[in-house]
Each structure stands twice: as structure tokens, then as C-alpha cells.
Amino acid sequence: PELVNQIAAGEVIERPASVVKELVENSLDAGAARVEIDIEEGGARLIRVRDDGSGIAADELALAVASHATSKIASFADLERVATLGFRGEALPSIASVSRFALTSRPRAQDTAFRLEVDGGRAQAPRPAPHPPGSSVEVRDLFYNVPARRKFLRAERTEFGHIDELVKTLALARAQVEFRLGHNGRPVRLFKPARDEAAALARVAEVLGPDFPAQSLRVEQRAAGLALSGWVGLPTAARAQPDQQYFFVNGRMVRDRVVAHAVRQAYADVLFHGRHPAFVLFLELDPEAVDVNVHPAKHEVRFREARLVHDFLFRTLHEAIAGTRA
Ligand code: ADP
Ligand code: MG
Question: Which residues cross the membrane (predicted)?
């Protein structure tokens, strides 16, 4: 099973940021209100994610790091309407197979926490450990036992940059959750929970820059079971790089051709060639109307009714943007 897990790790775990993504998504799936991420040496030395979520019962800790053990899906029918970020049950075993790994957890109803250590895939028996309600995962020396992958880690600053970008994306996706990110013992980001729309917009400004709110329009529209909300940048404030485009489908960051095409069309007659609008958009729809089971790590989805989604996005955005023309 070790080799199987290491192969799975090769698919899902490309670099430290992929580990952070899987761990923070687990925290969010566990209903955490606070997520604290501590990184050392760009994640090559340490990745630690702490949350105040539901925790894992002592007798289920070993299961959490076992292959294909997910607590989130019980049947094929569930797979058709995945509401959690994770559902494959392969992230923790994969990560644990290529690192020195520890999971410490305590459900609120349990008086002590337990800690399970896994070294290169070999799990020790869980032992009592101090920990408040919630979970901590520590991942040390990522890829220490897979030298070919360890060698491909980039400079500390590059790897941390990927982590920072990921945390910004997650912070946009979950405005009500507090996120802290630290690197080498220094606090780098603190996103306080945003309880209203003004605070949510302030968080957006933290990610897209202080000018974004003044250079954008609020969008809010629903039709045919689709709901779109967020902010789109004014054409006049478009950027040279397409790096400030955030699109979330049911709280999941997505890069999708249908979406990209609809946005491009909506801006087509107001944007100079080679310029890219900034936007933060949230699309909500019935989980059964979208397939998120396409690839474990990529930001791909498949809409059951792509045409409907495309036209809804295009119309909504085009209307908003057209209104800005004198
Ligand atoms: P998946 O998220 O696809 O279910 P993972 O390998 O990421 O699979 O996690 C395995 C299981 O461990 C989850 O289904 C969940 O039950 C449990 N788990 C992992 N991380 C946490 C966490 N931070 N809080 C509570 N439970 C967790
Ligand atoms: Mg998961």
C-alpha cells in the first residue's frame, strides 16, 4: 500500500502548496472557524495546519490516514452531490507516505486529544497529547524519502509564494473563516472573519489590492437555479496579466473554459486586446448540476448544462459591464 500511496501522492502532491491545500480543505470540511498555517523553509521543512473544527475521535485517527478512507462519502449517490471539498480519502495517506507526518486531534466531546505519527507511511499507535478541540497536522521534511521529487522543490521564496497565493484564494472562498499564515516564525497574513459584505469586500481588497473596490462593480443575480455574486473589475482598470481572476463554484476555486469564454465575451467590446479584467465571482448551483470529480488536484469542473451556465454568466456580466459605458 506504501507504493500505491506514494504513486497517489505523485498525482495530488506536487509541491508544498498542494499539501497546504489538502490540509486546509480538510479543516474547512470539518467546519473550522479558524485555520492557522505555519510554514518553515517554504514548506520543505515544515507545514503545520491547525484548526478548531470537529476533530477526529481517537478510534478513527488510524482510519483517517488509511487509503481511501473518507468520512464524507458513503455511496455512489453521495458522489453525485459532493458538498465537501474532499471526498476521495487519499490526501492524508498520500501526504503521510512522503513525509514525517503527525495528526493530533480532539473532538469537543472527548477530554483528551490523541496524536498519531506516521513516518514515511508507517503509523505508530495513537498516544494522548495536549490539544484544544480541533485538529493539527504537521508535515515535516516533505519528500524526504522520494529524493527525485525533493530535488524538484524550488527556492524557498517560490514555494512560499505558491502557498501565499493559495491562502489568499481560500480566504476569498471562505470570508467568514479566520486565516493566519506564518513563515519561518513571522506572521505574514491575517484574515479576520468577515461578517458582512463591507468586511468581505475589505478582504477582497487585501487580496486584489486597495484600488480594487473603487474600480469594480458589485454583481448579484439569480436565475434558473443559478446564483452569481461578487465583484467584477471595470474595463478601464484591466490588467496586463490575468492573475487577478478568481472564480468559485460552490466555494471551490475553478479554472474552466466555459467560464473563461463567458467572461471574455462579456468584456469583448469594452476591453483592449491583451488586457485582462480582475474579478472575484461566486457561482452557486445544485451540486448535482456540476461534476467536481474530474481530477484530484486540478481546478476543473464539468457543468451538466454548460450552455445554460455560459449564457447566464455572459448575460449577467455583460449587462453589468455595459452599464458602465458612458
Ligand atoms: P477526504 O478529505 O477526501 O475525505 P483526506 O485523506 O483528506 O480525505 O482525509 C481523510 C479523513 O480524515 C476525512 O474524511 C476526515 O474524516 C478526516 N479528517 C482529515 N482532516 C481533518 C480535520 N482537519 N478535521 C476533522 N477531520 C479530518
Ligand atoms: Mg481531504
Answer: none
Do residues 43 and 20 touch, judged by C-beta distance below 8 A? yes
- Spacing, Cα 154 to ligand 1 middle (Å): 28
Cβ-contact 245, 256 below 8 angstroms? no
- Grid coordinates representing 103 are 495528526
Question: Can you say how many angstroms the Cα of residue 125 is from the centroid of all Cα atoms in its chain?
Answer: 30
Closest atom, ligand 1, to C-alpha of 22: 7
Determine the Cα–Cα distance for residues 56 and 235; give it in Å rounded to an integer. Answer: 48
Q: Domains in the chain, start-ordered, CATH in brackets?
A: 2-191 (3.30.565.10), 208-322 (3.30.230.10)
Prediction ipTM score? 0.98
Q: How far apart are CA 81 and CA 157, in angstroms?
A: 38
How is 220-262 classified by DSSP, letter by letter? EEEETTEEEEEEEE-GGG-BSSS-SEEEEETTEE---HHHHHH
Q: What is the DSSP letter of 213?
A: G
**Which residue would you say has higher pLDDT here, 88 or 191?**
191
Rg (CA), the chain: 21
Q: DSSP assignment, residue 91? A: H
CA distances to 1, 89, 174, 244, 300 from 122, rounded to whole Å, are 11, 18, 34, 41, 33
CA of 284 to the centre of ligand 2 (A): 21
**Ligand with smallest separation from the Cα of 94:** 1
